[in-house]
Write a structure and sequence with these properties.
single chain, alpha/beta, Rossmann fold, five-stranded mixed β-barrel, 7 helices, about 25% strand, binds hypoxanthine
């Protein structure tokens, strides 16, 4: 694994030149944020050595290097989901490569079902913390001390400093920003009403099928994380309706300019 990380990082370094300090993962339906990235150079995952290839509909699978808010950034359009059959080392491989490149900040976005009764479809939820319910842990197995410590601290998995910045920007720009706990599950089924209720009872505000593995590895690598869920459907008793992947993509697409605005403004401050 260490060799693969080095090889991929070297390949990207040669392509990218000056390495940005921030990487962004664009979640389901959030690929349009890529349009806001300027002076772009795109590299399909198929051309990147050792990168898994993304398959699911709505994830085109490329790395976009460009500027956002005047600062250089690398964005993943399309991520690797556990439910697609990748193992956790593959799901989190890009994060290892970002760290090897010297990237310090990871911005993550996803589409999620909202369990908090005060949420509406199209809301943006700033992730404050998570509950990991994936059946496999991304750090399972031998620990490579070069990559991080055996028992990583997770007391501030989502950087408080970045969260406060996001909240302040949302307030200034009049963007409605919810906040809460993200429950990470393997999918690919959406939840039964009983499962949504269970996730609410254990302390969740939103549930989705991504993000947690990448955020764990980013913390192992001591990167600072900022993450948002777009609430694309509701797992609230009395409000649960049939969900489709298309509905999820559409709700995410509508909410994404506001999330992009917050990310762009933070980039200006941290770059
Ligand atoms: N559950 C799990 N994942 C999701 C959901 C959901 O309701 N909506 C979007 N991704």
């Amino acid at each position: 694994m260490l060799e693969n990380i080095k090889q991929t990082a070297t390949y990207l370094k040669n392509k990218i030149g000056d390495v940005p300090n921030t990487a962004i993962i664009l979640g389901t339906g959030l690929g349009e944020l890529a349009h806001e990235i300027e002076d772009k150079n795109e590299i399909p995952y198929t051309e990147i050595p050792n990168f898994p290839v993304s398959t699911v509909e709505g994830h085109s699978g490329k790395l976009i290097i460009g500027t956002l808010g005047g600062k250089k950034v690398v964005a993943m359009q399309g991520r690797f989901h556990y439910y697609e059959g990748y193992d956790m080392k593959q799901v989190t491989f890009p994060i290892r490569v970002f760290k090897a490149l010297g990237i310090e900040y990871l911005f993550v976005s996803n589409a999620a079902g909202g369990m908090n009764p005060s949420f509406d479809i199209g809301d943006i939820m700033l992730i404050e913390d998570h509950i990991n319910l994936f059946p496999e842990h991304p750090l399972h197995g031998k620990n490579h001390n070069e990559l991080g410590t055996r028992f990583p601290d997770m007391s501030e998995a989502y950087s408080k400093e970045l969260r406060l910045m996001a909240m302040e920007i949302a307030r200034q720009k009049n963007i409605k920003l919810q906040h809460g706990i993200y429950v990470g599950v393997q999918g690919p089924t959406f939840e039964t009403p009983a499962e949504y209720n269970f996730f609410r009872i254990i302390g969740g505000d939103a549930v989705g099928m991504s993000t947690v593995p990448e955020v764990i590895v980013a913390n192992h690598a001591r990167m600072k994380v900022l993450a948002f869920s777009i609430i694309t459907d509701l797992g609230v008793i009395g409000k649960i309706v049939e969900v489709s992947h298309e509905d999820v993509q559409e709700a995410a697409r509508i909410a994404q300019p506001k999330m992009a605005e917050i990310m762009r403004t933070i980039m200006q401050k941290i770059g």
